[in-house]
């Protein structure tokens, strides 16, 4: 096949700011450059050959030296798919989840046609797509959204939680806001029964986010002193346990301060 290059984003700016300007007279170029009418810009493109597909996010910065306009080029990020091996490589050691969204979307549309998740749900799944998970999606070893979650939950520390991935998949798809599974890592760690947390999230799918930070802060405090967190506690029980935790933290802090000879002036109680 003939090599093809297509723009994913930025074609109009590329044509107007780059192609058009380079065709103009040096006088016009100089005038536009020194009146700040030629700007730096980004664009994303895709190149396909017989053997590979390439995606790149690029930056061009205008320069005017020796009476000549030119653009300094920088490739910010990109990816290569090898058609023969079926392998994808993300450039410069970057993570797929952190790439330019339009490139992410085009890679998934091109290589994982079954994946068509809209809006906030997409971001929730996207955050789990490590390079290994993306590769399994491309190769056909992962063919549905629950399997994305299941594969992610094979990583530590999530592996030890044995989370109900079917319920998590429901939460991902039906939550009223972006669902960040990693946000609950310490809550899972501090819970004797991590799936109680999953059940709570599912049963309170439209309101859990109001308490998520409070749960995480309490769980981190509990982990610091070897205690557990129960998401089924009432608000009164949670307040009581919080006071107990703060007293325990204060006692331990004083013990270490004494052992290590750390002087604490005007020490305030928790």
Strand content: 15-25%
Class based on secondary structure composition and strand pairing: alpha+beta
Residue ranges: pLDDT <50 for 5 or more in a row?
Answer: none
Radius of gyration: 26 Å
Q: What string, H for helix and E for strand, traces the elements in order?
A: EHHEEEEHHHHHHHHH
By DSSP, the count of extended strands is 5
Q: What is the averaged pLDDT score?
A: 93
Number of helices: 11
| Widest sheet: strand ordering | 1-2-3-4-5
The helix fraction, in percent, is 40-55%
Please report the distance between the alpha carbons of the first and last residues. 70 Å
Based on Cα principal axes, name the global outline: elongated
Largest sheet: 5 strands, antiparallel
Any key phrases for this structure?
elongated; alpha+beta; 270 residues; 11 helices; 5 strands; five-stranded antiparallel sheet; 45% helix
